[in-house]
Amino acid sequence: SFTASFETFGFFPNAFLLQQPDSAHDMQARALTVCTLLDAYVRGVDADWPHVLDCIAGELDRGDNRAFFDGGRVSAYPSHTIDLAVACHAARLLAEGLGQGKLAGRLRQAEERWLNEYDPQTGLLRADGQYYEGTHWNYSFRLLPDMVQRMRLSPNFVGQLDAFFGYRRGPVSQLSADVTADDVRRGEQLYSFEGLNNETDMETPYAYLYAGRRDRTAEIVRDANRSCFGLGRGGLCGNDDSGGLSSCLIWNMLGLFPVSGQNRILLGNPSVAGARLHLASGKTLELKSDGLSDVAVFARQVSWNNKPAGDWVGADELMAGGHIRFTMGPLPDPYRPGR
Q1: pTM for this entry
Q2: How many helices (H) and strands (E) does the chain have?
Q3: Which residues touch 329 (CB under 8 Å, ≥6 apart)?
């Protein structure tokens, strides 16, 4: 279990390899376990949550992360500062749920430090940082807890997303079977969407929802699902990474997308006529897509338990069961703000 790992190693390992885990694997990310634990809490998983919170506090306060609290940045990887800011948000929600107001107040202050890594001139993450399997563009559109503040940094937020996804850009040359390191570097310099096989890019289509452009989310997700997955050999477009890639496909098809560490399930654009989910709570979640067709791919209206919904609902709400109805059509609604 996560808590047993912390008790044994003194931190939450990002991965278990064929050796004792160590913090050297932090180059990929920081404190992602904290988001997973918050996800479990809001979904009603039974656990010793006060002890879990103690472990989380120990993870955030360990020496490798002190620079985040002391100076606002944690390493040469700007994404690590973002990771820790989001982890502080998740830990704060748990602390509030457990009545730990003093800890929650400290965490609330720290969760704003993601701002330190953004370039105010471009509205993107700073280009001089290091990035794991990507560039600053791949990491700049993460779904943050405060997306209103995030979009203020980019007056042309939708335009930047459009550039990332290649709108109004000509075709690019596809790599051949004989790929060199130089080919990869040239591809990265396109600063473009790399596909759902790159975990950093999986959630990016949903950033459009926060800007009222559900149509863009629908177009990109539908095209990505069709081009990146198939029924035969090679049906997955990359390493499934313990189910990450295949679960992304399922969420996209259902028209739901969980934002880890935020108690938020985004309401997207389904590509199945309906589904019934039997939840761990013992309840049932019913999904229905009225009017879905090859042309009607946009969710023009969404209702949650017969009431108009915004662009998301809480995971804790969904765990109580109910039904979501998508009214599909060929054209999206005009600008419709989220909740």
Answers
A1: 0.92
A2: 15, 10
A3: 291, 296, 298, 300
